[in-house]
Amino acid sequence: MSLKDIDISKVTYFDLNNEINIPVNGQIQLGKDEEALEAFLNENVKPNTKQFSSIKERINYLIQNNYYEEEFISKYSFEFIEKLYDYLKKEDFHFKTFMAAYKFYAQYALKTDDNAYYLENFIDRVATNALYFGDGDEKLALELADELIHQRYQPATPSFLNAGRKRRGELVSCFLIQMTDDMNSIGRNINSALQLSRIGGGVGINLSNLRGAGAPIKGIHGAASGVVPVMKLLEDSFTYSNQLGQRQGAGAVYLNVFHPDIEAFLSAKKENADEKIRVKTLSLGLVVPDKYYELVAKNEDMYLFDPWGVERVYHKPFSYVDITKEYDNMVANPNIPKKVIKARDLEEQISKLQQESGYPYVINIDTANRVNPISGKIVMSNLCSEILQVQRASVINNRQEYEVLGTDISCNLGSTNIVNLMASPNFGKSVEVMTRALTFVTDKSDIDVVPSIQHGNRLAHTIGLGAMGLHAYLAKNQIEYGSPEALEFTSVYFMLLNYWTLVASNKIAKERKVTFDNFENSKYADGRYFDTYLNQEFAPKNARVKELFDGIFIPTKSDWTSLKENVMKYGLYHQNRLAVAPNGSISYINDTTASLHPIINRIEERQERKIGKIYYPAPYLSNETLPYYKSAYDTDMRKVIDTYAAAQQHVDQGMSLTLFMRSTIPAGLYEWKNGRTDKMTTRDLSILRNYAHYKGVKSIYYVRTFTDDASEVGANECESCSI
């Protein structure tokens, strides 16, 4: 028998899984999911897994048939590999749900080239990840195996999927590049987008520096076409460069709200836009300075400034000018071409587009830069809005060569599983092991087809460790999402992630005698970064939260002082350490909830291609936890914003915060709806965006709307960057 011979009409696991959605005597049949899991393993996995007489025979087969790289295996003795397998088997891992097992075998397990047999089970994939990221260090490989088999740590999908494979994509998740205001840069970056899309991962591109439509072009009797034609070129590039049709090319473009093409930029995403300008698959993001919020609040006119004029006056690209600080000077300067619109008209256009499509993402750029400890400026984000790192612009000559090699960004991501990490025998050690695994990815990443990406990675050594499963943890412990206890737990948890990643990065810098580039000009080097933790107490105060962290080390001000001294003396290896990405299918394999969001349904319904519907019960669902599992669509989004704000104060980068709205808003959810229509309006979204800005949230990802006909708008999943 092989996978190709499975007759879906004769297997039982899909029908058993579907019975979860059929209550009996008012009770959810959770036991049917366990039956579906057992049937799947017996009917699908066991008969279709290629068998070997020993671990050595299996690994030799995989190397000889070009499934595994030989190099990482050769760094270990077979005696050690067998020891690692003995440990993993002893831990007796079992999937907890049908969805977890189904997703793993459908998307992550290595199969024969003809897709007839499985070549890996979960233990095999864990062992391969541990050996690969251990890089010959037996102690680290065993520690990684421990974190992975207990699902305390989850590498990002590209890392977890590709580790050890002979024919693989890149280990990194996504990329950020920026254009400057000249044709050489535009051409080079379109080529970069093609190359990066080819090797895998989504690409974010900053267009804010390009001159607007109608601006003069030096030496030519004519006018610039603006950013929209460049957007079309990029969309076509991503569509073409799609890994031989294996996936849709994924790209996001960012534009500053003070760019003169901002209205055309937004209009390009409208469903009724002319096909000549409409972008269907490209994601849109806005770079929003504080000045914009001020103008909206005061209902004032808003001046839009042409980047070519701004650069002529300030002698640097538009993105690197502090618009909030310089706004009045720019308005008064006759050498800067400008036009005027109503700030609230633009605010309404943004909300209308979010209702219609879920876009644009919003990056509160001044918020991000205000707390940025790194010398330089953050100017954009990525395809999922959680990467916020400084960049330096490149200068490209007429031969398409780099006269000045700037720094662009590749994303090296991983996630903690909150439920499982809270049960770790050593929280700090677990985080250090995760940090070292992510460090391997940044050290081994070598994207030479885009030199600015390669250069940025070599200088910065950035990583992004995040978290998933917050709602699962809260529900399991019978704590209401968004409650004071939940917010305090979130703050303490991310304070610990921050502390221990700093400890690990400092330790690696000391071991290697290497820091990230320009460390000496950072707020880490002079100690200012640590003022927050020396002037404020983040230890648990609530009795329930103290109970949750019982037995877990909580750093005191003395510990922070000691860390500050070590960092000032030995430095940090990583320029950036933390980021909370969205979670795709990997959260199911971890049997937990996605990211820091509330769940959507207690019994989630997934439409799988060629299969039909699969149902996934919320983790730890029971009569006791049921009241604590409220749908995101029935949750006040201010609770979600408060949750992300509680984490954000400890996260040096950003977080993929999605807003969940209903077309018809439940009564009593938002007090400003009282006496008004119960339909979602642009005003609702504007209030929430402004609230997020007020709370110090750096970015907003999608706006997902559940419509009255039970469909979802803006429910696209960013598979490129999702953990």
The coarse overall form would be: globular
- Assembly of the depicted chains: single chain
Q: How many β-strands, per DSSP?
A: 23
Please give the radius of gyration in angstroms.
25 Å
- Structural class by secondary-structure content: alpha/beta
Q: How can the largest sheet be summarized? A: 7 strands, mixed
Helix content: 40-55%
Physical arrangement of strands within the biggest beta sheet = 15-2-3-6-7-10-21
The low-confidence parts are 244-248
Strand content: 5-15%
Query: What does the average pLDDT come to?
Result: 94
How far apart are the first and last residues' alpha carbons, in Å?
33 Å
Count the helices. How many?
28
Task: Please describe the topology of this protein.
Layout: H1 13-18, H2 31-45, H3 55-64, H4 70-73, H5 78-90, H6 98-108, H7 122-134, H8 138-149, E1 153-155, H9 157-162, E2 174-178, H10 183-199, E3 202-206, E4 216-217, E5 220-223, H11 227-240, E6 251-256, H12 262-267, E7 283-288, H13 290-297, E8 301-305, H14 307-314, H15 323-332, E9 338-342, H16 343-357, E10 361-364, H17 365-370, E11 377-378, E12 390-391, E13 395-396, E14 402-404, E15 409-410, E16 413-417, H18 418-421, H19 427-444, H20 451-460, E17 464-468, H21 470-476, H22 484-512, H23 531-535, H24 543-548, H25 557-570, H26 586-589, E18 603-608, E19 612-617, H27 637-648, E20 659-662, H28 682-694, E21 699-700, E22 703-706, E23 712-713
Parallel strand pairs: 2-3, 3-6, 6-7, 7-10, 16-17, 20-22
Antiparallel strand pairs: 1-16, 2-15, 4-5, 8-9, 10-21, 11-12, 13-14, 18-19, 22-23
Helix pairs in contact: 2-6, 5-7, 5-8, 7-8, 8-19, 10-11, 16-28, 19-22, 22-25, 22-27
